[in-house]
Specification:
single chain, about 400 residues, alpha/beta, 9-stranded mixed β-sheet, about 40% helix, binds 2-acetamido-2-deoxy-beta-D-glucopyranose
Amino acid sequence: MWLRALICVFILCASSTLAEYAQPTLPPTPTEIVRHHGYTAEEHTVSTPDGYILKLHRVLPQGGNDTTSRPVVFLQHGILGSSVDFLLQGPQKSLPFQLADAGYDVWMGNFRGNWYSRKHYKWNSWDKKFWDFEWQEFGVMDLPSMLDHVILTTGGKKVHFIGHSQGATAAFVLLTMQPEYNKIFKTFQALAPITFLKNTKSPFVKALARMTFTTDVVSEYLGDGQFIPSARLLDLGGRLLCKDHATTQSLCLNTLFLLTGFDSDQLNKTLLPEIFTRHPAGSSVYELIHYAQVVKSGNFAQYDHGIVGNLKRYGSTNPPSYDLSKITAPVTLHYAPNDWISTPEDVEYFAQKLSNCTGKYLVQSPKFSHYDFLWGENVKQQVYEKVLKVINKT
Ligand SMILES: *[C@@H]1O[C@H](CO)[C@@H](O)[C@H](O)[C@H]1NC(C)=O
Ligand SMILES: *[C@@H]1O[C@H](CO)[C@@H](O)[C@H](O)[C@H]1NC(C)=O
Ligand SMILES: *[C@@H]1O[C@H](CO)[C@@H](O)[C@H](O)[C@H]1NC(C)=O
């Protein structure tokens, strides 16, 4: 029901006003935002072994094309997001600009399916086949392809990896399934990482975990594989619902933040129209189903294909858990008290399973939540200064 309601809100509000909103302008791309603020931007394209074409964005200081002395940082966006999320608070606050100012060579990845990575050699994005992936593919296909490109381009440097939300999930999957990547992570800063979901408070995720996912249910509730169908509809919905002082603002807040928790004290509300024109940036239903399985089983494990499917794929009736003992890269955890999806209890439980956890930072502000790691008014003091301190030391 939650899902149906969520999708209906977007579609209804968008379609009823289509007529009066005939020509939406596209929001600026990450490259445009970076250049607008006087930094140098580059776009790079990589392809994955299974045929997806992904876009990377790079941020350097103005005229800063001499990158030989700059250590490399790789930022990976979170659930339903894209690289643009990191940039929305501008040069005074946003992490990529802070890092570029501090002397780093900053790269930002985009997972398959989001607006910047919605291409495939064989499938179109309206083919159901295109959307047949979940976050394990982000970890074992997308991240290695992007990281290999960065390493090749920068002459073999190790990277400081910063993953928000699902960006951290995918990197943990990578480090367990292809442990050779541990040695190229100079540090791993996990911001609101999603791993175990024993204590999730998200009504949306809990509702999902109660459902049984037959193929019929998936297509009835969630469409043909893509979680949120149309960027155009969302663009309209975001602009119309989320303008400052609009009476609908509280509604608009509740729908996106149902997933992850929200408190209006922390969020910079002038950003809402920006956020809603870009969010969700597209993703497959199977990502959410996989998280729902993690809630249900209590295990951070591979996708559950049912007994027959599991036997065929894994040779066991249950999907194997990710072997966290394989993670040897030094991991620093940053998490927040009011995060519904990456709860302090679950992050601390995860920390006990890590062999090389080099720091745990619980944000002080009691109302800080999942998206405040990107858009919180005080995120610089609460999180980014600690991140910079850790990576500057290494
Ligand atoms: C880098 O900058 C230098 C000096 O500003 C310039 O001469 C050179 O052409 C630039 N190289 C590239 C690849 O943009
Ligand atoms: C909110 O974000 C806007 C746009 O980046 C910025 O101009 C403004 O100063 C921010 N407000 C606060 C209170 O930080
Ligand atoms: C932790 O990470 C550091 C830095 O990469 C490495 O030198 C060390 O061997 C790691 N320790 C363990 C126990 O894996």
